[in-house]
Amino acid sequence: MKPIHTFAIAVFVPIVAAACSGGGGSAAGSAAPTPLPSGFCQEGSIVIGPCALTFAGTGASFAQFPTMWEDGPAGYTFSANLNNCTKIVSVGPYSTVLPPAPGTIPWSFTVTPNAAGSCTLEFVDANGNSAPLAVTVP
Length: 138
Fold this sequence. Notes:
Blueprint: E1 4-6, E2 41-43, E3 46-49, E4 52-54, E5 67-70, E6 78-81, E7 89-96, E8 107-113, E9 117-125, E10 130-137
Parallel strand pairs: 4-10
Antiparallel strand pairs: 1-6, 2-3, 3-5, 5-8, 6-9, 7-8, 9-10
């Protein structure tokens, strides 16, 4: 059984209204999809960045803060599935951050390197959508 750690974070970020849907249709006047920020990847409806974490050492001073959001209705909660990462990193909530794209509520987690190794974290939303995050600790 995989351990899942769920972090309910209160979201107090104003939602920015979006005027386009990004549907990508070919009709005249359709808005082009919004490009992802540099270093971000999209897996299904989840956008996550950076696409992978490589740490310079172990301990809290080397922690990194990946950010993710749902491409769709805002307000989803995310949980971190540690898979085979339990000895390599720990994951905890950090905060919400300013929206990188209109209509999104981004989540940021604290990922702390604990021991050398490589693994893949999985972030899962309330609807079962998931996005992987490769982790390397030298």
